[in-house]
């Protein structure tokens, strides 16, 4: 059986993407949790993950002797291995666009990722208000999300970005979590999409797992002293 090595569900946005994708698509796998620590080279986290991947980061998809790291590489590998799941849109133009927006998320949105780290259990509207006031890059990136999501939802008729659930929705699920945690201002259309993503069975299960965790990782908590 496939294994997916992940870190804390509360914090690990990169782990969330393939986990949600596989659960929502009905791809069976064994979850292997390696909790975050101080991430020093000699830490337990690094040692366990480096045993499977030369980059020492999660997520990692393990298939026998094959290890695939990086969430986008994992998504592409799953799409190739399970073509019947139609993880990318069927239409070639839509598929190309879906790949483009996943790559955009993969390489961009650095302001949102830096200033609004994923923290599903937390409710941080006060921090969000200050970030919104003081970080123009975050405002620019949220505006880009609005333009992207509203255009795709209108073009494809929803409920997901390309009609049916796809890799693109799994890829942006952690962004939905960030927008919720920090209560960043969004349009009714974007809020409705966030609500639909949150209600997906796979996302709901991930959130439940995040809420059940008892870890408080200081390196991932720029706005709180405790849980």
Secondary-structure-derived class: alpha+beta
Mean pLDDT: 96
- End-to-end separation in angstroms reads 35 Å
Shape-level CATH architecture of the largest domain? Up-down Bundle
The radius of gyration is: 17 Å
In what order do the strands lie side by side in the largest sheet?
2-1-3-4
Q: Which shape, going by the Cα principal axes?
A: globular
CATH class of the largest domain: Mainly Alpha
- In CATH, the topology of the largest domain is named Glutathione S-transferase Yfyf (Class Pi), Chain A, domain 2
Q: List the total number of helices.
A: 10
The helix/strand series, from N terminus to C terminus, equals EHEHEEHHHHHHHH
| Count of domains | 2
- The tally of beta strands, per DSSP, is 4
> Low-confidence spans: pLDDT under 50, at least 5 residues?
none
What helical percentage do the residues reach?
40-55%
Describe the main β-sheet briefly: 4 strands, mixed
Proportion of beta-strand residues: 5-15%
């Amino acid at each position: 059986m496939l294994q997916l090595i992940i870190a804390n569900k509360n914090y690990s946005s990169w782990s969330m993407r393939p986990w949600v994708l596989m659960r929502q698509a009905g791809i069976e796998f064994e979850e292997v949790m390696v909790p975050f620590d101080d991430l020093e080279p000699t830490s337990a986290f690094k040692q366990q993950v480096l045993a499977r991947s030369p980059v020492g980061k999660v997520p990692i998809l393990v298939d026998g002797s094959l290890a695939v790291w990086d969430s986008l590489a994992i998504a592409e590998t799953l799409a190739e291995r399970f073509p019947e799941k139609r993880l990318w849109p069927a239409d070639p133009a839509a598929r190309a666009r879906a790949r483009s927006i996943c790559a955009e998320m993969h390489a961009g949105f650095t302001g949102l990722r830096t200033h609004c780290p994923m923290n599903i259990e937390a409710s941080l509207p006060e921090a969000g208000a200050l970030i919104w006031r003081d970080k123009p890059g975050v405002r620019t990136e949220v505006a880009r999300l609005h333009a992207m999501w509203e255009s795709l939802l209108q073009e494809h008729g929803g409920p997901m970005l390309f009609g049916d659930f796809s890799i693109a929705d799994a890829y942006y699920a952690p962004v939905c979590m960030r927008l919720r945690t920090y209560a960043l201002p969004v349009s009714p259309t974007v809020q409705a999409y966030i609500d639909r993503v949150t209600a997906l069975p796979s996302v709901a299960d991930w959130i439940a797992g995040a809420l059940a965790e008892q870890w408080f990782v200081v390196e991932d908590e720029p706005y709180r002293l405790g849980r």
